[in-house]
Specification:
MacB_PCD, cell membrane, 11 helices, single chain, alpha+beta, transmembrane, Releasing system transmembrane protein
């Protein structure tokens, strides 16, 4: 029989009447449980937000992007394109010409982000699930079409079913004095709106058009682009593919993954997650301080019992273990209950979405959550470490009681 554990259980579970120390121990256990549960839930929500952003970016951005280290455009020769397409893991390569421009529709106008794409962009099938209205179409029977974001549609009051009103795109012509009164100061292209997409407010100012239209507006040469977007085959190792592509493009161009393009956002999420985790850890610490006080008062209350144990031959180590076990029972019971409840809440939110975001500009209705085993282990270890630290001093004081 483990005598210290048996005595500790008797102290906690078998009191004939509830004293102030008993209620303080229960309060400490509840505090540890609530803090542990909150920590698991909040960390899972941050994991879910990070995963949600990855899914959002995956809907619009490519797996890999080749861009110039300096400037905003470069020459993509047929030889370079062929070498990139032949790189292991590459599934599809899209040439891109992108810049800010002015859009007019009827009597309304707004600044947009014009993204010119080549014909194989449709094969990526990224926007298929994001289309609100119309078709994903860029060229048919010699007519150029545009796909506009929902924000642009709202700003300009665009109707995709109205084929008579064109979407006019204007871009300042190089070498001309910029003046709204000068009709030659802007290059102009007229497009028919084929569809409307919505992903997230970050992309609400985008207009997608054929790359030939974008090059004509921007004054680009036939092989000139702002970037190359590359889709990888499923199962391809992204880091190895990025290194292989970087060797092909050389030192004047840089290959970036989707995460590289949004590294600032991910860093901000992780930093915020860290600070929130530290804040919630203080809740567990405060609850553990209550364990310290409850054990200290229990030592005072049980001085007579401790003397009897010494008289019966108990050692200091045994007495110390009794009160360490008492603190472990209080804290670990609360921590285990908090972990289980936190996991249950996250699984329920993931399956049923009880808590809604209440944002019309989001592609999801409920708060996203994603359980991570490392977060659960970290939370459990935190509870154990704090429990040992706060239980040690009362246990040491009990061991020194004579």
């Amino acid at each position: 029989m483990n005598l210290p554990a048996w005595i500790a259980r008797r102290y906690f579970f078998s009191r004939k009447k509830r004293s102030f120390i008993s209620w303080l121990s229960i309060l400490s256990m509840l505090g540890v449980g609530v803090g542990t549960m909150a920590l698991v839930v909040v960390l899972s929500v941050f994991n879910g937000m990070e995963e949600l952003n990855r899914q959002i970016f995956k809907t619009f951005e490519s797996d890999m992007t080749v861009a110039p280290k300096q400037g905003k455009r470069f020459m993509a020769s047929p030889t370079l394109l062929a070498q990139l397409r032949a790189t292991p893991g590459v599934s599809l390569l899209t040439t891109i010409a992108q810049d800010n421009a002015l859009a007019r529709y009827g009597n309304a106008q707004t600044v947009i982000r014009l993204k010119g794409v080549d014909d194989n962009y449709v094969q990526r099938q990224q926007l298929d699930s994001a289309m609100l209205e119309g078709k994903l179409l860029f060229r048919r029977n010699g007519v150029n079409y545009a796909i506009v974001a929902d924000g642009v549609r709202n700003d300009l009051t665009i109707s995709p079913v109205d084929i008579l009103t064109p979407l006019e795109i204007l871009y300042p012509e190089s070498g001309q004095t910029l003046s709204v009164l000068n009709p030659d100061a802007f290059n102009r292209e007229a497009l028919t709106v084929a569809g409307v997409f919505f992903i997230e407010s970050k992309y609400d100012n985008f207009v997608l058009a054929p790359i030939s239209v974008a090059r004509a507006l921007f004054g680009y040469k036939p092989n000139e682009v702002t970037s190359l977007e590359i889709q990888l085959r499923p199962g391809t190792n992204e880091e190895k593919a990025r290194q292989a592509l970087q060797e092909v493009v050389g030192k004047d161009l840089v290959v970036q993954s989707r995460d590289d393009l949004n590294v600032d956002l991910y860093r901000a999420i992780r930093v915020e997650k860290l600070f929130v985790a530290l804040t919630l850890s203080f809740i567990i610490l405060v609850a553990s301080i209550n364990i310290f006080f409850s054990l200290s008062m229990l030592v005072i209350e049980k001085k007579a019992d401790i003397r009897i144990l010494y008289a019966l031959g108990a050692t200091r180590q045994m007495v110390r273990r009794i009160f360490l076990t008492e603190g472990a029972i209080i804290a670990l019971t609360g921590a285990l209950a908090g972990l289980v409840l936190g996991v249950v809440i996250c699984l329920a939110q993931e399956s049923y979405g009880f808590i809604r975001m209440g944002m019309a500009s989001s592609i999801v209705d409920a708060y996203p959550v994603r359980l991570d085993a490392s977060d659960i282990v970290m939370t459990g270890l935190l509870s154990i470490v704090v429990t040992v630290l706060t239980s040690w001093f009362p246990a040491q004081r009990a061991a020194n009681t004579l």
